[in-house]
Design a protein that fits this description.
elongated, alpha+beta, 47% helix, 4 helices
C-alpha cells in the first residue's frame, strides 16, 4: 500500500533534473569536510569551494598559505572524488570578504 520514500525519491530527483545538482553539492561538501580535517586550525576557513565544472573542482583560497597547504594535500583530498566526477582540483587565490 505504501511505498518507501527511499524508493520514490531517487527517481523523482532524476525526473526533476535535481539529481546532478545534488551530486555536485555533495562533492563540494565532501571536499570541504576533508580539507578542514587536514588543514591546521588557522586555515580551516581560509578557503571555500566555488563549483564543479567539467570535472574540475574550483577552490577559492583566501591566502597563498591556504592554497599551498591545500595543494600539498591534493592527492589525499582527491581520494574517492574521482568516482564523483572530479578529475582535477584548481586552487585560486581569490580573497573574499
Amino acid at each position: 500500500m505504501f511505498t518507501k520514500i527511499g524508493n520514490i525519491l531517487p527517481e523523482s530527483l532524476e525526473k526533476s533534473g535535481l539529481a546532478p545538482k545534488l551530486a555536485k553539492a555533495r562533492v563540494l561538501s565532501i571536499f570541504e569536510e576533508r580539507a578542514r580535517a587536514i588543514l591546521p586550525e588557522t586555515l580551516t576557513y581560509a578557503f571555500k569551494t566555488v563549483k564543479l565544472e567539467q570535472g574540475t573542482l574550483i577552490v577559492a583560497c583566501r591566502s597563498s598559505a591556504a592554497a599551498y597547504a591545500l595543494k600539498a594535500a591534493e592527492a589525499e583530498l582527491r581520494e574517492g572524488l574521482a568516482d564523483a566526477g572530479v578529475d582535477h582540483i584548481r586552487f585560486l587565490l581569490a580573497p573574499w570578504r
